[in-house]
Task: structure prediction
Amino acid sequence: MAFRPLKAKGPRGSASTVITTDLRRLPQHIAIIMDGNGRWAQLRGQPRPIGHKQGSESVRQIVRATRRLGIPALTLYAFSEQNWLRPLTEVDALMELLREFLLSEREEMLTNGIRLEFIGRTERLPSMVGNVLREVAKDTAGGKDMVLTLALSYGGREEIADAAKAIATRVKAGTLAPHEVDEELFGSLLPSMRSGPVDLLIRTGGEQRISNFLLWGAAYAELYFADRLWPEYAVEDLYEAIASFQSRDRRFGRVSSDGSASEEAAAKEEEPAEEVAVAPLRS
Result:
């Protein structure tokens, strides 16, 4: 079989990393549940916010690697609707870290054609975060190389409920007939679908659930669960997840006439692999 899995050479996280893969089979939309920040800190006898701070460095490295690979869309579960129930000190620390991240990464996003978007009930965010979030999104709106979406105060059920309310309002107003409601219309009302359906959904931290994340868009996503806690998650771990994705046969319920994998999937397996050197976007 011509396909060879991604492989890393050199120290973990180093610029000498090399991957070997067919670049035509990369996922177009990766979504990540960044789990394990608090546990990482507690295992080291430190406050949970320290883990979130360390986790922000993993965000930087994964965003850079995704952009370097040419993957069009990356969605990160940064803060769920349920996270508001955490201790106030932890929530405050998360908000401050988010603000710092947006301010510090603005220039790199502009330089590398990354467009920032956000989904969720962001009206709940404190103004010191919400204002910066909107400003950076506006500043980077012209980015055409990658879309980085932050899910903030987000919940998949809540997003679907909001779309259902919007449809009900239009039906009640007489601007939409019930028979006109279909999957395409419903999906168009979900902000998370602006980046398209999810191809690969990764969760770190050892848990094996999707925790109310992108319930509509992840309907046919390949799921990958990593034991590594998010502050420890490195570029090589992302490559391993992509290698797993590329080893799977995504038929979306279809089979060929003889019951085997689709002809398209079989043909892709025969395509030659390409070797690509991957380094951070800037030194």
Notes: Strands lie at 18-21, 29-33, 73-80, 114-119, 146-154, 200-203, 222-225, 274-277. Confidence is low (pLDDT under 50) at residues 1-11, 13-17, 261-273, 275-283.
